[in-house]
Amino acid sequence: MIENKIVIWGAGRIGRGFIGDLFNAGGYQITYIDQSRELVDALGVNKKYRIVRATSEDDIEEVDISNYSVFHTSQHKEIREVIDSADLMAIAVYPQNFEGVATQLQGYLLERNESSESPLDILLCTNLVHVGPKFSKKIFAGLSKNRQNILERNIGIVETLIIRICPNPPDEVKKQYPLVVWTNGYPQLPVDLHGFKGKLPEIESLRFVDDMRAEEIRKMYTYNMSHAVLSFHGHIEGHELLVDCLADERIRKEAEGALGEISRALQKKYKFSKDEMENWIMGVISQTNNPVIGDTVVRSAADPIRKLKHDDRLIGPALLCLENVIQPKYLIRAIGAAFHYYEENDKTSKTLYETVQAKGIRQAVIEICNLTAEESDLVDQIVAEYQNYSDKIEWINKAQEAYRLGFEYEKKYHGCGQCAIAAASEVLGNFDNEVFNSATGLCGGLGLVTDNTCSALTGGAMVIGTVYPRRREHFDGDRVNKYLNFELVRNLRDKFIQEYGTTVCRKIHEKIYAARMICAWQKNARLSRKQEGMATMAAQRL
What we know:
542 residues, six-stranded parallel sheet, elongated, 23 helices, 3 domains, three-stranded mixed sheet, N-(1-d-carboxylethyl)-l-norvaline Dehydrogenase, domain 2, alpha/beta, Rossmann fold
């Protein structure tokens, strides 16, 4: 039996872990081409690599792929030969390298056309919207009209949608299998039905799409958009994983709110039905909320300048909402958060920061997002949300410093209530000796009996009272402060219930280290070394 052949330019995670996986399962002989000498050598020496399809905690599938050859981009003779005999090609490189690959490819396609006029379809596998015309322009650049016509007749440019996620694998897995590609196992590759010039590939996992423009926009403005919303909000809050962002009620509300806005706009613009969009959004959330994947905030937020461009995943959806008379308040908040993104190892985040500092936020928004004078209202709203987030970040930084101090004090001095009061009030600049002293007896759920309210919760309530007090001189008033105080204390109490299922000192300890807590007030009670270690760990959690 003669195998079909596909050449995949780009042997990274998407190339190996998605395109290679699908076509290997479809019986294709695969050839990889890559510019990384280290990766090419590793694939050549190992002669196989592993793909993990982790669709959920209960559904993890592993497959080893060995039916491939691999060449470096400098091996022109070998590349010419495999392209001449290929049935399909796929381009799976980073967006910034896409046009460069098209330029490299032009010569190989012309040489193929001299020996054969059989069609060759090229799948464009990248997170760029409507990339086909840009790729074609590079392929045809500098050619005579006759040569352009010949290539246009024989070369199919096929846009695709990359929905499968390929994040960093767990360290222990990568150590055992250095070439492993860890994926969420998304099973389908949507492809533009109208882009093909040759016979349609008989691959079960390909979904042929009639209106690719609508599908591209929907994917970019939902999957990619929601990941950006989660990551830019989550980075400010200190979250490391997208699943952590979804577990944070406030951030999840932001993502779901943004998805709701764009869902309504997509229904109006592209005539997706309400039921269809509801099912699609459920899929977006479930695919993202996969703890096995461990998709990181840093990966999803990387290259923020590209993600803030006019037609990309944040500005594009916001403009589509405005076009359809939908106020994109959640999207605009995410854009404001994005302009605060700074990650030491991300060069474009540094450029973003420097642009804001040098030109001011308003001019930075106009230039980076390519917004016009007609879109000045959107600029104003983004600037306002950026400034709102500036205040929020200040408070987040204070909270993180209070956490650090609280842990340090608890580890050294013990007594959650007084440690919470000392840490928070010192950061707030309102430390009061009498308040601190009065909290002495809170320790251990009141006097070390452990069967009452956790003293960290009580101490937290006392700190809130120093900021929003009902004052003695207004004993019969201070209603605004009083009811704001009640709301904040309730919120703090609810966080304890959410985290531990209780506010009782002893039960919190039992929840943390699954063992009954010692009644510390009893005579001769002592903590073992193991329990002391547990207590330190508990202090950090509290």
